[in-house]
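OP here, attaching both records as promised.
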Amino acid sequence: MLKNFLLAFTAGLISTSVSAQQTIPHFEPCGSHRVLEYYEKIDPTFRDRFEASFQQSQSETLAQKPTGQIYKIPVVFHVIYKTPQQNLPDSVIYSQIEVLNHAFRKTHADTGDLRSVFKPYSADAEIEFYLADIDPDGNPTTGINRVLTPHDNWGDLLGLTMGDYAWLERIKTTQDGGQDPWPTDKYMNIWVADMTDASLGWPFLMGIATPPVNPLPPNWPTGAFPPLKDGVVLQYHIVGNNNPYISNLASLNVGNAGRTAVHEVGHYLGLRHIWGDPTPGMECDPSMDDGIADTPDQAESSQMSSSCPSPSQNTCVSSSPDLPDMWENYMDYSRDNCQRLFTHGQVAHMRSILANQRNVLVSGAGPTKFHAASSKTKNWTIYPQPANEYIVVNFNEPIEKVIIRHITGQVVRVWAANEAAQRKYNVSNLAPGNYLITLQNSAGSYTKPLIINP
């Protein structure tokens, strides 16, 4: 699809036929490969240095395999809107956080639907996401920053095609009607906007993210090129798995599972497209893959359609062992309802990025209460885990309050004073999902994850 993108542009942006009765407009699910092209255009040595840095990170991944250490990432959503429809409700943002957590913790309900050949490859990244509750000035926040803009939309297909990112940076710039990022070393910034191109009438881009070049790896010269403002941008239709406007994009077959954001956050944490965005004519060449050892070679992106690709789809037959295309991978372009895994190699790479280029983000130095509460450790346990009717807390100190938050940050249950001291709590009214349980006493707060099953 990407190889035909410029051809479609020069041919007058004619729709691509998907059946005799239906046509869909050409669009790009992800523009992050164009970010790399942008950097390479400014600095011709960029790709070689990017590859070298990627390989260096790969050599460090053995030390970064999951060990029980959960990396916690504070998130702020900047909702840039002109119309009420673009101003998505909080429930959609909460849903997107939940989708991210399910994907990076391998707890999606459809994880078990993964093809058997790939089940041994699927890994829990032990990475979690929380809406920030303290803003850069130390004030309380919901982690959702709403900005009324004078702009109807932010699309500029011609600019994107020519490698001009001024249109995108306006979304990230307050003086241009968008929103400046919160400190990018302390928050993962996600902008939600309408990237519809006014001349076309449809959004040609679903998401885009910057790779971890901020701070620059030590082998890259400082000031070699002006980096884009760090973070993720999402088309507002595809945020969350409960988006009321996703049906407007039904003809694009993007799906309604909210996993476009998972793909873009994968880029933000250093992953590349599973097929490696090869130079034309170099498809399936080992030097052109995604740099991850346990993702099978793949010649090109899987195409979005109303159903998942064929289980036998295999665009490269040169690898050993010869595996089919891993279209369930979050870094492919299959319909997002079909995507179900990060591999062990991808997980190790992302954790290496969080331990190096993005280490401040997860260090607990940022102004978020979640980090302060979770940083304190005590020898205490919860059982049963997962739970469905009740939980028992074994904690060798007084308990003055018990708070359960949904993984999105919403407080869903509080026990105070005498109730908290009972050590056994009824959770039968909680919906299945991932939660955090916090114990509070005069000495501090102590937080652990809690899983509720049906």
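Record two, same layout:
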Amino acid sequence: MTMKELFAPSDMTVGKPWEKIVAFTIPMLIGNIAQQLYNTVDSIVIGKYVGDNALAAVGSASPILNLLLVLFVGISVGAGVMVSQYFGAKQRKELSMTIGNCVTLTAISSIIIMILGAVLSRPLLEMLKTPDSIIDWCTSYLVILMVGCAGSAYYNILCGILRGLGDSISALIYLLVATVINIVLDIVFVSQFHMGVAGVAYATVIAQAISAVLCMWRLMRMTDIFDFRPKYLKMYSMEIIRLGLPSGITQAIFSMAMVIVQSLTNSFGEMVIAANVIIMRVDGFAMMPNFSFGTAMTTYAGQNVGARRMDRVEQGAKQGTLIAVGTSTTITLLIVIFGHLMGIFTNTTELVTLSANMMKILAVGYIAMAITQSLSGVMRGAGDTMTPMWISMVVTVVIRVPLAYGLAFLTRTPELPNGRYQVLWISMLVSWCMGALLTLIFYKKGNWKKKALTGSSSEK
């Protein structure tokens, strides 16, 4: 394969479905793992050079960070669905307008997030009863990332466009470059310049900005597929928002639930907060294959719906989901066997043991999430972004949050006035399993097949 062929957009409407899905997923999985390294390296450097409280500070900031970035999630999902369908349907003008609208929407959203982040970070942390010992670090970390959010926003949204076009290689290369820069800057800023939590935030912002510039450069060179002209920067349609809003709302609900649960987490003290940080960093890697397959299924379904090949959509859904489940089963076994490796985050033995034991509670849930992410990806690719949203709302708002607080209440004792901390992860496991069951039911019902943007999706 030549370099030109390697970086060429992938037409997923032809060839064996599972081969197309796997070939598209692998570079994206590597890229997602590299992106997860941003947060993981932050945590390792902070935990080793500054201490467990600083590690807890970075983790306590994460739910609020995710909550404030939901606008970008919506734009990215809407863009991916529209780009993949218009690319599959070979509609050049509509594709050009969609990409132009994404660039404009991202600029507007970035300005909004910069303002909100700077103003709301400290009040939100105080509302969550963040311990006084870490709140200053939390605030510093959050404000820097919010003010510098444009790089992260453009990278993620431009990556969504490239993946919609079937190009998962370019985003991988640019992200690997940015990851190396982030790691180097993390070490330099924290160990050499002694900038603490602020140092890892600055390193992340700089690295993400570089990856965004590289993605924009790549898109501007793809003139054989679409036209990147100033006239397409106008807001021609709100379809991106209509399609992306449910995913944005889903992420907002999930992030709000995480914020609420973070308040419960904070009540258990710094040790449990720090353990939760470590678990979520490992969780990020464990979940990457599921997210990668989910995104691949969105692109695959979108292109084939656009090409009116519903037969291929259903065939690919079965094959892709089976591969995702097999991958997650392997990861589950590795988590159970190698849990002690969490010592890379901290020198505190008690913290390593606590984190490893709690991770074993979550392990089997990754298999359930493989089903949820793959089939939700198919539904989104077909244009049905509402069903995954409702499922996420139910499992998060109706199941996860009430279950966490309810179990905490029921397990209270004089020695444990706030209940058992294990309920944090038990509630998450239950919600994941229920989400998989509901997703499978609604996928089988088949209403998602009627949501295509490009007309009839009947079989050829």
